[in-house]
Amino acid sequence: MAQWEPFAFDAEGTSAIVHGENLTVLEGLPDEAFSLVYLDPPFNTGRDQVRRTTRSVPVAAGEGDRVGFAGRSYETIMGSLLRYEDSFADYLGFLEPRLMHARRVLARHGTLYVHLDYREVHYVKVLLDALFGRQCFLNEIIWAYDFGGRTAKRWPAKHDTILVYVKDPAAYHFNSADVDREPYMAPGLVGPVKAARGKLPTDVWWHTIVSPTGKEKTGYPTQKPAGVLRRIVTASSRPGDWVLDFFAGSGTTGAVSEQLGRKFVCVDSNPEAVDVMRRRLPDTAVYSAS
């Protein structure tokens, strides 16, 4: 693995996966190099995040441990166990220097997306208001999903929150024309042309989580779906722009950026995350920042 050295983030540069502590990597990145920064930091759940990968292989009829479509038999093969620690005594103290760098490396037209849940989002909103200025707050996006267990003791938590800030409210890039559109709930009320085109998404996004049995699944804990990132990357960057994710995890930001013709830097300190990204993005150079 080559040693990481920041390079010119221009048309000649190539995307990179960096294994290292993100604060160290951030300190070496140049000012205003990235059009989009997407962050999915640990949610401070107070426990380790663990996910075991599995795969199913077809076996002879009557064998295996489950029966699938058309009565076919399958054997479940257990894979690797992936985990990372998700507990911080001073969560804001952990995030603040990283968010300061996120603002510094954003281009004047750039946008920051910070993906959180109910535990810390309100405190991080106040912190971001202080770092960026309240006038730079663009959106609070609610990603709603309907999957998993439901407690009977309170309203079940079935959404994440994505805070959106811009570097300069007078200069930020936002391309709503190319964003995927949603079907109208009452298409008969809008006419056939509008119904066929669909409507622009609002700040509430209904999107399933990554299917536990789908092809998109990498096995990495807290993997975010490509559909959510595709909407973000499409709206807030242009082809050829640079995208940064320094809590990269499974590498969804990099995978989507690559598909959409953007260049990216994905950083993570967890070697298991880097291994997942290496498999998912085999043509991307991997560096060590240790």
From TrEMBL:
Keywords: Methyltransferase, Transferase. Its EC number is 2.1.1.-. GO terms for biological process: methylation. Residues 35-276 form the DNA methylase N-4/N-6 domain. GO terms for molecular function: DNA binding; N-methyltransferase activity. SUPFAM superfamilies: S-adenosyl-L-methionine-dependent methyltransferases. It comes from the Bacteria. The keyword Transferase applies. PROSITE patterns: N6_MTASE (PS00092). InterPro entries: DNA_methylase_N4/N6 (IPR002941), DNA_methylase_N6_adenine_CS (IPR002052), RM_Methyltransferase (IPR001091), SAM-dependent_MTases_sf (IPR029063). Belongs to the N(4)/N(6)-methyltransferase family. This is Methyltransferase.
